[in-house]
């Protein structure tokens, strides 16, 4: 297959590029900073010569969007919104103009679209969309709006010959440097991987192998479109999540952190506490109903596998 991946130089794009290329597929990356022969320049906003790669491709997987690992200032939130909506819009325009449009367009979305909750898991059929939860910072609702507008930009695209899937992805765990697992493991190794603000908030996650396999599964399933949750079927509270990670590394101590300590830590990391404090209890209802089988359904085993890879490197 020929696959075009806009925004494919980040952590998730690296995971997909590595696996799909190893499987013998032709992968073209659209990026603002081309650094290889398979990279084409684009700005994520305007049509250009890059659109020729979309014409005749089998699959487009759009991952483009400003990183969420930043301070959630009004300017950064606006850039998150614009970069996602505009890239989805221009990808849709390229597909609509193609003489030989791709048969499927997988559009990155996020599990953050669901409400901050503890009482029940969110699947695609019964999940509660966030934005109006009491007792949470008001700006959290903007993250939900970003996800909704991101998906809406794909839905609005006039691409009748192309099946469209929105990937409501949880945190993708890979051993790569700079990824979310690398950050969490560094905290655990320093003895800082204890409960944050009590640790009752749920963490949804997916092992890189299952993320790739789910993408391949969705490419091959012509009967699946619309939003699909890409998350392991067993989300767990943050305190249990970090305990399993500490166990996998062999670190017996994990110092707890209060909410204000988390604020200081997020400031030091130039990140935001929403990533630590929002309860994302998301399950892959549609994948499971369609017969997808996870290789890494439980976090303790997945963490041990990832730690083995880190140590091997």
Description:
By secondary structure, this protein is an alpha/beta fold. The chain has a single domain, classed as NAD(P)-binding Rossmann-like Domain (Rossmann fold, 3-Layer(aba) Sandwich). 40% of the residues lie in helices and 14% in strands. The protein has a 7-stranded parallel sheet, sandwiched between helices. Strands 7-9 form a two-stranded parallel sheet. Strands 8-11 form a two-stranded antiparallel sheet. Helix 3 runs parallel beside helix 4, helix 5 crosses helix 7 and helix 7 runs parallel beside helix 11. The model has no long low-confidence stretch (mean pLDDT 94). Pfam families: DUF1731, Epimerase. Belongs to the NAD(P)-dependent epimerase/dehydratase family. SDR39U1 subfamily. This is TIGR01777 family protein.
Short key terms for the protein model shown above:
alpha/beta; globular; 40% helix; Rossmann fold; 313 residues; two-stranded parallel sheet; 11 helices; 7-stranded parallel beta sheet
| Strand segment count | 11
Give the termini separation: 30 Å
The number of domains is 1
Determine Rg (CA atoms, Å): 19 Å
Question: How would the blueprint of this fold be written?
Answer:
Blueprint: E1 2-6, H1 11-22, E2 26-31, E3 39-41, H2 51-54, E4 59-62, H3 74-97, E5 104-108, H4 140-156, E6 163-169, E7 171-173, H5 180-189, E8 202-203, E9 205-207, H6 208-220, E10 226-230, E11 236-237, H7 238-249, H8 259-268, H9 274-277, H10 285-289, H11 299-312
Parallel strand pairs: 1-2, 1-4, 2-3, 4-5, 5-6, 6-10, 7-9
Antiparallel strand pairs: 8-11
In brief:
Helix 3 (74-97) runs parallel beside helix 4 and helix 5 (180-189) crosses helix 7 (238-249).
